[in-house]
Amino acid sequence: MKHVLMSFGLLFCFCASHAQEQWHLVFLNTRPDKPNMEKVQHDSIMKAHMTGLQMLFDQGVATLIGPFEGGGGMMLMKGSQPPAIKNKLQQEDPAVKAGFFYVEPMVYEAAGGTAACQVRPDPANLTSLKVIRLDAKKSASKALRGQVETALKSLKEQKKLLQAGWLNQGQSFFMVVRNESKSEIISWLKAFPLGVKNGFQSQIRSWWTTKGAACDGN
């Protein structure tokens, strides 16, 4: 049966056998027991890893792809469930197979009216942004979600926010913002609804992605 590619905003939906697929934010976290190897071998594996990510983009199943400063990376990837995403990367990604990364997929729901731009990964054309991850032990309430949407609207008006989304049914949240200093982000993050008082802990990391992939052109 032919699969008909249909656009729904930015996200792609495959009909027929792919009807149950959904988007996940996938963190590729550096393993503490990452093997030591010669630079030539390491670089060869990472080159194959990058080629594989470009193929996933070309197939319409991955976007918003890039590495974190200091190791690891992040992308949006489509699959049926987190275990399916994890198994696919464990079986097919050269860097995951080599023991460089462990895979952390989280069901993704876009927030704040944001959506990634379709820009093919290009390691020669990168820009530096910041990723904010907020995690809690329980899901955010409907009222708290409403407060977050209001806050996101303000961040967009200030041209700080590029991407945002709920993860794992509201237990976590992430944002991609412009490359301000960490102290500046911490300052405005104090007023963000997903703070310590609501049970959320924050992480801020520098992240590289292809220019335009996070809709950062304006």
Polypeptide structure, described:
This protein has 218 residues and is α+β, with helices and mostly antiparallel strands. The chain has 5 helices and 10 strands. The protein has 2 domains: 5-108, Alpha-Beta Plaits (2-Layer Sandwich), CATH 3.30.70; 110-210, Dimeric alpha+beta barrel (Alpha-Beta Plaits). The strands form 2 sheets. An 8-stranded antiparallel beta sheet has the order 4-5-3-6-8-9-7-10. Strand 1 and strand 2 form a beta hairpin. The chain starts with a strand and ends in an 8-residue tail after the last strand. Mean pLDDT is 90; it is low at 1-19.
Structural Rg: 17 Å
SSE-based structural type: alpha+beta
Order of helices and strands: EEEHEEHHEEHEEHE
Mean of pLDDT: 90
Going by CATH, the architecture of the largest domain would be 2-Layer Sandwich
Examine the coordinates and then state which fold CATH places here, giving the name of the CATH topology of the largest domain.
Answer: Alpha-Beta Plaits
The percent range for strand residues is 25-35%
Number of contiguous helices: 5
